[in-house]
């Protein structure tokens, strides 16, 4: 599976958009980009995933560059409850299962009032 | 809807004791995963099951660890004998495999294990 690179930490003002980058320059054509987050003392929570098109759901938007070597997770209006560690994961999926997710160190996002 | 349920939430025991962690996946899910999280190593997959069958146990640290899934609604992770270095938060996750969809994993709140 392709490796990912994320900044270790970021700050964001409450109510502003949080843009979390992820580099995955060795991604292959059949690998998806997944984002999860982990709020303190809780289990990780799925946010969004994509292959090559931009995706949006009720939680966030995912922007994938045309060459697929990087992506950005956007939380449009960050709240204090969005303070968490955000993980970008790249892997193949098969049989409809995400199988083995390899979590890196992620980005610790701190949303400040 | 009930999510993934793990028990106990906290466990403190002495070195050498047997520890059993339990997980009830989301009803209808057919994939189950056990992860371990420590400050040093982050989140690591220990083992995962599809349709109650272990698929990949390469992350299980050693023979002291064993996992079972006797039916679709229950799984256990056992450590015998336990050692202080096993202290960690253990997460269980489940997902729906198959059907052509790309289904996310749903995690429980974890078991915080301390081995003295």
Task: Report on this structure.
The complex is a heterodimer of chains A (113) and B (116). Chain A is mainly β and 113 residues long. Chain A contains no helices and nine strands. Chain A has strands spanning 9-13, 18-23, 31-38, 45-50, 55-56, 61-64, 70-75, 84-92, 107-112. In chain A, the strands form two sheets. Chain A has a five-stranded mixed β-sheet, with no helix packed on it. The mean pLDDT of chain A is 91. By secondary structure, chain B is mostly beta strands. Chain B contains no helices and eleven strands. Chain B has strands at 5-7, 10-13, 19-24, 31-38, 42-50, 53-56, 65-71, 74-79, 88-95, 106-107, 111-115. The radius of gyration of chain B is 14 Å and the shape is globular. Chain B starts with a strand and ends with a strand. The mean pLDDT of chain B is 92.
Distance between the termini of chain B: 36 Å
Oligomer state equals heterodimer
Beta-strand content bin of chain A: over 45%
Q: What form of chain B results from the Cα inertia axes?
A: globular
Q: Which shape of chain A, going by the Cα principal axes? A: globular
Low-confidence stretches of chain B: none
> For the residues shown, what is the average pLDDT of chain A?
91
Low-pLDDT runs of 5+ residues of chain A are: none
The description of the largest β-sheet of chain A is: 5 strands, mixed
Fraction of residues in H or I helices of chain B: under 10%
Backbone CA Rg of chain B = 14 Å
User: What would you call the structural class of chain B?
Assistant: mainly beta
Mean pLDDT of chain B: 92
In DSSP terms (H or I, runs of 4 or more residues), the helix count of chain A works out at: 0
Number of strands of chain B: 11
User: What structural class is derived from the secondary structure elements of chain A?
Assistant: mainly beta
DSSP strand content of chain B = over 45%
**Number of DSSP strands of chain A?**
9
Helix and strand run of chain B: EEEEEEEEEEE
